[in-house]
Amino acid sequence: MTHQNSHLDRFSIESILRDMRYAPLTVCLILIAVASVTASPWSRVKTSVAKRFGQDNAGASQWTEERQLEPYLIRSEFPLGDIQDLVQDLGDLQVDLESMLRLECEPRPIQIYLFSSKRTYDQYLRIRVPEGVNRQALYVPGTDAGRVYAYRQRELEIDVRHETTHALLHNALPYVPIWIDEGLAEYFEIPAPSRSKGHRHRKELRDAIRYLRWKPNVEALEGKRKLMDMDANDYRDAWGIVHFLMHGPAEAREALFVYFDEIQSGAAPTPLSQHLRERIPNLNQAIIDHLKQ
Question: What are the beta bridge partners of residue 65?
Answer without folding.
Answer: 76
